[in-house]
Amino acid sequence: MKVSVTGAAGYVGLNIINALQEAGHESFAFIRKSSRTDYLAQFKTKIVYGDLMDNNSLQEAFKGKDAVIHCAALTSGFKADRQLQYDTNVMGTRNVLHAALQNKIRRLVFTSSTCTIGSSESARHFTEEDSLSGYRAKGQYAKTKMLGEEIVL
């Protein structure tokens, strides 16, 4: 299977590239030109440069692929990065979905975060049915990842 991975230079993306390689799939690492590639060099993956905000680069990256795994995200907690975080985690996700639909991608995997569900000081289990609450509800990252989930669903 030919699989495009957004955010492939990050921690999650690198592990996904590794798993795809071990499973015998052909992987394509969709990364920004400013991303470090030294960790990707150990894998037999084709590097595709682009940007989540550039629909043309997404269209080209997904052309002829069987699947897309979207794990690109901005996790910054700095107030100065709030707009960029929204653009990346919300609008970037929308753009990935649009490009995947346009290219008739058969499978799309969206990686989110545990921070999108509630938190509590008491020991209890949380599920996707729990709403964003507690200290996590105050964080911009959690809010943008939750909005990204809503777009996907």
Write structural notes for this entry:
The chain is of the alpha/beta class and 153 residues long. The chain is 35% helix and 16% strand. It has 4 helices and 5 strands; from the N terminus they run E-H-E-E-H-E-H-E-H. It has a 5-stranded parallel beta sheet with strand order 3-2-1-4-5, with helices on both faces. Helix 3 (82-102) runs parallel beside helix 4. The mean pLDDT is 91.
Rg from Cα: 16 Å
Low-confidence stretches: none
Major sheet attributes? 5 strands, parallel
Helix content: 25-40%
Relative strand content: 15-25%
Order of strands, widest sheet: 3-2-1-4-5
SSE topology string: EHEEHEHEH
Termini distance? 24 Å
Mean pLDDT, to the nearest integer, reads 91
What topology emerges from the helices and strands here?
Blueprint: E1 2-6, H1 11-22, E2 26-31, E3 45-49, H2 55-62, E4 67-70, H3 82-102, E5 107-110, H4 140-152
Helix pairs in contact: 2-3, 3-4
How would you concisely characterize the structure shown here?
This protein has 153 residues and is α/β, with parallel strands linked by helices. The radius of gyration is 16 Å and the shape is globular.
